[in-house]
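Might you be able to check the backbone structure tokens below? Thank you kindly.
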Amino acid sequence: ECIYTKHLCLDGRQIHLEIYDPCSQQGKLSLADELHWADGFIIVYDISDRASFAFAKALLYRIRESHIGVCKKMVESSIFLVGNKQDLCHMREVGWDEGQKLAIDNKCQFCELSAAEHYQEVVAMFTKVLRNITATSKVKERRRPSGSKSMAKLINNVFGKRRKSV
């Protein structure tokens, strides 16, 4: 699998980022497991390759389809559609307006950039994505401690000495 991990600090907050890249599996759209753990999606297509745009459209459909059953209200800002290779405008097969329309139709954000010429655009796009996800994501339910930890806490509460607040 193509999962990349990165730890970073954004706005004073530690973030553990896991990125799943399904590009090597373009024929396979059964992303059921990946779709359920993701907090956000960045779908990238090549503006000089209509087939990659069709794949991006299929991924958007698959994401929307999977989230309809899981949650009634999906945060619109958690999906970004990105047209890459803006530096190859002379070979463009997918118009900016087509990308914009697909984004609007799927209630996601849209941008075009050139990862080859301006890595700063990629950094800015990822930063925007992460800020949107952290700003709009609800506080997730905290996982309950395992049985042994819960039992130890219970025993400590019953038999242990209470500390006074200072």
